[in-house]
Amino acid sequence: MIKATSRQRGIINAVISADGYINGNDLAKINQISAKTVQREIKDINDFLQSYNCEIISKRSHGYKIKYDNYDDYKMLKSIVGEIDCNCVYTLEENRVEWLIRKLAFLYVDSETESIKQDELCDELFISLSTLKNDLKVVKSILHNYDLKLSRKGNSGVYISGDEAKFRYFLSDYIVHKIGQEKSGTILEMIDIKSSESIKSIIIDVINKYDLNITDLGFDNLFNHIVITITRIKNDKIINEEKVKHIPEDEIEYEASLNLCRQICKLTEIEFPTAEVVYIYQHLKSQNRLFKDDNYSIDEEDSNNLKTIRKSLKEIYLQIGIDFTHDEILENGLLVHLKSVLHRIQYKMKIRNNLLDQIKKNYVLAYELANFLAKAIEEDMNVEVDENEVGFLALHFGGALERMNIKGRKDRLRVIVICASGMGTSILLRSKLSNRFGSKIQICGVYPSYKLEELDFKDIDLIISTINLQYKNLPIINVSPILSDTDMNKINHFISKGNENYKLDIKSYFKDEIFSSNLNKDNYLDVVEYMSNKMYELGYIDEVMKNSFMEREKLSSTEIGNMVAIPHAIVGEVKKPGIYVAILEEPIKWVYSEVQLVMMIAINKDVFLEHENLFLDIYNQVDEMYKVEKIINKKDLNYIKKLY
């Protein structure tokens, strides 16, 4: 039988320990070898793994993962290569931190053993005390985000302390949603499967009986909350009644909460105190209404909210030039949504937006517009709107932008045809286009290529050309002079979907004078201030936009992961479009993580509005750590230009 070397056993252990995919760079760091050596070793490792019907597979942009057909063979492999009984060798700090948080959280759930000694944690993780202390600093910062503390209890060890309601939110949000059920299995482990299904049936019955409107996310959150509540009540941990405000008992959501608690009480033989009933009411109240129908009547709260919405839409029009003031669908959607948002804020019930990262990257403009509304809400109502809520508000603006055809698609696209094959072909081409797409396009002229310089492309949406052309700010569809079926399909696709393949010439925005290869700053706001000042001094932006970069960064971090931040602003004037690239001398703490590559974007509003995928195009070249490291190490603007 082929034997595995100690290095290969280390690689196998790391892959098994990863709980999913692990990239080659991490494997290299763990085993103190190069990424190329990892690739070379895995080829030999798979020969060894054949005896156990296992294989290490790779997936682009994800990394490596162990694949097996039979769990008994896989279990045997783990024992042969020296896998530890705890099922995971936590060689990566991220994995250890997740394990520590999970461990401490479920000690907290069990009121009898809520603390644990540090040497016990070291033994379980197979790490030194100094490594543990560094990991606990990260744990402490994560708990701080939930207003919880990592405390010490004499000689008995460390434990989580804090308000009961905040701890429950932490359990639901971090343990279930961030770490994930597939990794933690935590909430379902609190009760048996039969009880779990019964609770879900009770929730569905109550929702149907009282005609409540709840999303799938809301249903999951409510279920998780009830399971956590049952466990906590069993351990005499209940919500402080002093913090519960008076609730109008005639409200439908309160009646539904009472009914729900009565049925769960019969199922579990656990009494729900008034404070717990109220907390379930708050869950229902914060998400009951999903849309504004004919039966929806505007109350005083709605009237105040409507003023705030209209105020923000006017501000968007003044600052950005997009007029949503006549969009009733947007106004009504925001009105209903805002009621739920404010109830969640009032009851201090945070919500996790699992789409937030995708929204920030794919719908940048919609997210920026939602920030205008968030700012108006904070000013008018003296509350704080977190980025998860802003992300949900952004979806309404995304829909509004689509309705406005913000990317330039109108009822009929205005088209110029460039044809180099003579008058006869031009006439035929124009006739075929008109006959096929007459109701969807307006042909504004057919011209030979040499007249390009004389043409006015203002208000033109598309160029259809029989020769290869490059024109900076307009999409071009190349066709054959006879207009084949393939050509017809390309045009039809553009009309219905927009030109998804048309991308801005991003590399043209990178300039030598706005490139810093070794910027020495140790505070992220100092970085933004320095870069925006330089763009202002060099005549790229006006003073309003210079200040807007700082205001935008303070509102919500523009870091996107992988040590990259992309500061941007949409308020103010761009005099010369450009992307300022700065490579920092050393990584610095931004808001959530370290950043060393900064790309500050100053692009004209009209271009920004027409190219919502601009940020996604930029992100695609820095979406992996190895790509970012190459940019940082090369410190070469020409290399960056080649990427785009």
TrEMBL record:
Start and end residues of each PTS EIIA type-2 domain: 508-644
Pfam families named among the record's database cross-references: HTH_11 (PF08279), Mga (PF05043), PRD (PF00874), PTS_EIIA_2 (PF00359), PTS_IIB (PF02302)
Keywords, in A-Z order: Activator, Repeat, Transcription, Transcription regulation, Transferase
Keyword Repeat: yes
Name this protein carries in UniProt: LicABCH operon regulator
Residue span, PRD domain: 190-294, 300-407
Superkingdom of this protein's organism: Bacteria
GTP-binding recorded as keyword: no
Positions of the PTS EIIB type-2 domain: 413-503
